[in-house]
Amino acid sequence: MGVSLKIALAGEGGQGVQSVAEIISEAAYTAGYQALYIPNFGVEQRGGVSLAFVQISREQIGAPKFMLADVVVALSHRAVDRSRQYVGPETLLIYDESLRDEVRSLYGTEQKQLAIPALVVAQQEMHPRVFNVIILGVLMQVADLLERSHVERALERRLGHKFAQDPSLRELNYRALERGYQMGKGGVAV
Amino acid sequence: MAIEAQPQMPRVWRAETKPHKFCPGCGHGIILKALGEAIDALNIQQRAVFGCDIGCSLLAWDFFNLDTIQTHHGRTTPVLVGLKRARPELLAICYMGDGGAYAIGAQHLVSSVSRNDPVTIIVANNTQYAMTGGQMAPTTLPGQKTETSPYGRDVELTGRPMLGPELVATIAPSGAYVARGTVANVVQLKNFIQKGLSNQLKGRGISFIEVLSACPTNWHTNAAETWHFIEKEMSKFFPVGELRTPDGEQRQEVEHRGRQP
Amino acid sequence: MVTKPIKGEQRSFMTGNEVIAWAALAAGCEFMYGYPITPQNEIMHYWTRLAPKYERGFLQTEDEISAGFTTIGGVLAGKRVFTATAGPGNVLMQEAMAMAEMMRLPTVVVVTQRGGPSTATVIYSQQELNLTSFGGNGEGLRIVYSPASHDDLFSYTIKAFNSAWKYRFPTFVLGDGYQSKMRAPVTLYDPEERGLTMEPCYPMVGLPGLPGEEREPAHLRNTYNLEEELFAILSDSIKDYESMTPEVVEWEATAIDDAELLIIAHGIVSRAARAAVQVLREEGLKAGLFRPITLRPFPVAELRRLTGQARRLIVVESAYGQLEKMVKTALYGLKIPLRSYLRPGMGITPEEIVQFAKEL
């Protein structure tokens, strides 16, 4: 992995794609990188596929959106399709295991890819709401760009007010993050 | 007429710009005299800012020894609302015609009233657009001939005369002062305007005064016909009186003869 | 005395809309008037959360016509005030801005461009350049700044208040939906601590002294009976505008000294263009970038001078020739071939510009 990373995240509204993007970009910023995050904010944001573009670099970042991503994260059937334009020959595609058939039929087996059982793990072992935090962990492990402490600090900034109300949420989120990091370890290097 | 009975100019009038630029027989001079006397009586020349609209009201841009801003058609209210929000100690007077108030500026009027903006709005209702040459207005009477209703206003196609004060009185929050005066009763008109300005001074809420006014030039009327039109024709549709007074918040019952003449 | 919103320099990571709200606060702006429209909304959201803490005011108006005219009211009152809008709201606001232009009222408007015409997208474009520069029934005697980064958004929002009150022309910060919505680093600062003096504001009505007795009343009119009368006033304004131009124009030139291929872009597109210049240089092409920061007045003399040795020009914009037209007007008479990469309402990446340049 170089010192520049372009990530496109796609999911259904409510899956927490924008939160993941915000936490990553915030973590990169506090770690001393140049970071830029822009949500896709069309009228379709209500009820459509939610897209987020994140760029992390040692150098000044140019345009806020890009043609091809280093990593594309697709979290729903529609998101697999919607994010296709950002997938190039070198792009790593991360997706939920439940979308395997979808991905195979669209990309075959050549594309660098990482299927993770985030949905199942979140539902069965944790809570559906931490699905996106598992994804965050996977992404951070795979990217291997930021210290874990920066990610955790950004997570606290984003969710700290909720943790304060219900301390068990903190434990749940950190468990989800850890699980994500573990899932990412088996993955492909970007 | 009342105007001849009181030849003295109000103190706040600007002598250098008199005689004024309005047509002979125009109602604006009478309304602005009543306004001038009300300003004198309340001794607010130092604090008052006068805003005039597009239409014949714009001819008042140098009428008073008052700081004055002449704005766009229908936009006097928002300009003075913006001013009043930034400088609440000033007294904002918005002067316009019925087109500016009820047609192109209607959304500003309705919104200002529902916000209860602390400004005083004075509307000259002469049943048509005078400066542009006598076109139909929201206030044109049924059957009245204008340049854009040459065969008489057809209420089936173009609606009935708009009742501004009634609209304002219906939607205004408490603290509002709403009245309709007429140039045919200057003493009453001055009283209404003075109450409207006092209401702003006391910070109670919006004040709105419509004035039945005269436009012999576009009505093509002589003096007798002009007064007849105001007192006999217009008053059938537009009953004169106070519709809302903040004291006790009682609604004054005004006979709505205009609804079904 | 209310404490200053920003002390020292503060590094922060936030959206552009938030940056604009902080800039207005830091500039000592006392009042915002506004009407909801995407992608401008969060300027109002942040402003309404911050304003009461620093004794600043806000009025949500019934539409953008009213937002424009209430802003004029605030200016007449002698306050440092602003509004923000986009797209169809910018169309409605032009009536008030035409009045401000004629009456030399120092209004400040932040425009966050979105795709057009009509409702179109709420996302992004550079299609409000013509409208913002020349939207009234007049001559476009306005100052229009085109920021390209969050630091620009902060600095030029502050500067807009100063230019407006110094020169008394309506002043605009022409941003876009990308800049509004993206999160990026920014350095916030207190202007005074940087040695910047805020241009004083003064009332135009509601002046001290009894009008007509202790002083002349302010009779501000916007109506003229004679062609000669109007012409005289416009001529004065045009003269002021032209004499102000050398002081106000701003631009940025990158790798321009030996550039044979000169790319011209403004706002956020200039960032992609700068990245493209770097790539083209690495590949042996002598590329350079000219970025006008003021679009009104346009840096005509500077562009003509810097275009000197270029053999080819490329205009790149997220509009269909709005910047191109300004460039062509500025370069009238020069015989350098010009091609444009025009993508109305679309974001532009460095890769596209590189490809376009190489295909020439």
Could you provide a short overview of the structure?
The complex is a heterotrimer of chains A (190), B (261) and C (360). Chain B has 261 residues and is of the alpha/beta class.
Report on the structure:
The complex is a heterotrimer of chains A (190), B (261) and C (360). Chain A is an alpha/beta fold and 190 residues long. Chain A has helices at 17-30, 77-82, 100-107, 118-125, 131-143, 148-165, 167-185, and strands at 4-12, 34-39, 49-57, 71-74, 92-96, 113-116. Helix content of chain A is 45%, strand content 19%. In chain A, helix 1 (17-30) packs across helix 6 (148-165), helix 4 (118-125) crosses helix 5 and helix 5 (131-143) crosses helix 7 (167-185). Chain A is globular. Chain B has one domain: Thiamin diphosphate (ThDP)-binding fold, Pyr/PP domains (Rossmann fold, 3-Layer(aba) Sandwich). In chain B, strand 7 (177-182), helix 8 and strand 8 form a beta-alpha-beta unit. In chain B, helix 2 packs across helix 8. Chain B starts with a helix and ends in a 17-residue tail after the last strand. Chain C is of the alpha/beta class and 360 residues long. Chain C has 2 domains: 9-194, Rossmann fold (3-Layer(aba) Sandwich), CATH 3.40.50.970; 251-359, 3-Layer(aba) Sandwich (Rossmann fold), CATH 3.40.50. Chain C is 39% helix and 20% strand. In chain C, strand 4 (81-85), helix 4 (87-103) and strand 5 (108-113) form a beta-alpha-beta unit. In chain C, helix 1 (16-26) packs across helix 2 (41-50), helix 3 runs parallel beside helix 4 and helix 9 packs across helix 12. The relative contact order of chain C is 0.12. The model of chain C has no long low-confidence stretch (mean pLDDT 97). The B-C interface holds B 12, 14, 45-47, 49, 54, 58, 61-62, 64-72, 75, 78-87, 90, 107-108, 110-111 and C 30-31, 33, 57, 59, 61-63, 65-66, 69-74, 76-79, 81, 95-96, 99, 203, 205-207, 209-213, 217-223. Strand 2 (67-70) of chain B pairs parallel with strand 9 of chain C.
